[in-house]
Amino acid sequence: MRGIVTVAGYVPHHRLRRSAVGEFFGSGGGTGTRSVASYDEDTTTMGTEAARYALRAVPGMLPDTLWFATTEPAYLDKTNATTIHAALNLPGTVSAFDFGGALRSGTGALVAGLAGGHRRTLVAGADLRDGLPTSADESSGGDGAGAVMIADDTTELPVIAEYLGGASVTDEFVDRWRAPGARRSRTWEERFGETRYLTLGSEVWSAALKGAGMDAEQIDRVAVTGMHARGVGALSRSLGVRNGVLADDLVDSIGQTGCAHPLLMLASMLEQASPGEVIALVSLADGADALVFRATDALARWTPPAPLAGQIERGVEVSYGRFLSWRGMVEPEPPRRPEPQRVSSSAAWRGRSWKFGFVGSRDVSSEAIHLPPSRVSRVGGSVDDMVPVELAGAEATIATYTIDHLSYSASPPIVF
Question: What pLDDT digit, counting tens, does each position of 4-27 carry?
Fold first, then answer.
């Protein structure tokens, strides 16, 4: 039996009221809120957080390979998954690859992981969805990440959602596209995309149910996701499922997070599901994909590491002006101090366990913890008597802080 052994989502702390757009410009916006990554969060950062949450639920169980999907990579040419690999303190024998560039990448990595081999595959997806001010993409988009670990069922690592089957259909038509280096996506006339996605989604839905030996009445939870809102809505109304089965797509609270959204929806549904329930996911992007799972008895023993409902509830509002500055749409006057020097690649490599993995040192004799790691203990003064200690996820108490209005920051002031 192959399927999902752990899953988690990450939603940034900040929210933008869509109505704030209309208040500022006199047009655009809407109702609800969208999630907003902070000025120092990129897709790699968010993917790391989702992956860390997912692995927290299965301590000591590491993947054999890590796949990362995004339409907004922090780097080109360089593999972004290797940074997540370093932040998770994975051994060098764990391979890391990018699935990048297209909205279908997140679902594609998930489908490939479910279909192939006996390896433990950690699939992470993250996106920053953007658009010009007052545009529908700006308001309806959202920032976020999700991560799923796929493996065969074992005593040590039980499957919480058994993969029953799925289907995919591909069609070449131009609905949404973005030229390399462009700030915004472009879209074709909505009725054309709605017609194509309704046809493709209906076809893949029927094929997935047939492959899983199910009919629509047996589905307990289903999510339909995709950037084409009208296509998603039309397909959702035609699935033939029972009332109350269609899951909240989270668009009103966090927005549509692109290639991360299928992973977020899996996390959301499994966090609310009970053993025995049949869960389905349909994703619309350059075709359609549908996956069907059954929650196992192991789900009752699985504790969601960072429930999405709690993350959504704890969000705090960010002003529209600050959102625009974080996105580079406006450029406020920065602090009049020199920008920081470029980081040394060799120095970063030497300190990679601390820089990426947040690994400190603990004095063997006094148990004192040091961040960054130190050779000399702050308690007792012993030298070179340290062991590494992983502190990502550890709780701590802030003793003091300083608000600095002078040092350079892309979003001043800096809180040290």
Answer: 999 999 999 999 999 999 999 998
Return the DSSP state at 301: G
For 303-344, where are the alpha helices, taking DSSP H only? Answer: 308-313, 320-326
Write down the residue that tokens 């038509």 correspond to.
Answer: 173
Do residues 359 and 390 make contact, with C-beta atoms less than 8 angstroms apart? yes
What's the CA gap between 19 and 24, in Å, rounded? 9
Average pLDDT, the chain: 94
Q: Could you give the CA distance from residue 287 to residue 414 in angstroms, rounded to a whole number?
A: 45
Virtual torsion, Cα 14, 20, 24, 29, nearest 10 deg: 110
Confidence bin at 366 (pLDDT 50/70/90)? very high
How far apart are alpha carbons 44 and 31 in whole angstroms? 29
Structure tokens at 352: 């990679």
Closest CA to 302 of 276, 281, 274: 274
Question: Where is average pLDDT lowest: 7-16, 65-74, 114-123, 283-292?
Answer: 114-123
210 SS3 class: helix
Strand boundaries in 86-188, DSSP class E? 95-100, 121-128, 143-152, 161-170, 176-177, 186-187
- What pTM, to 2 d.p., does this model score? 0.93
The answer to whether the CB of 163 falls within 8 A of the CB of 114 is yes
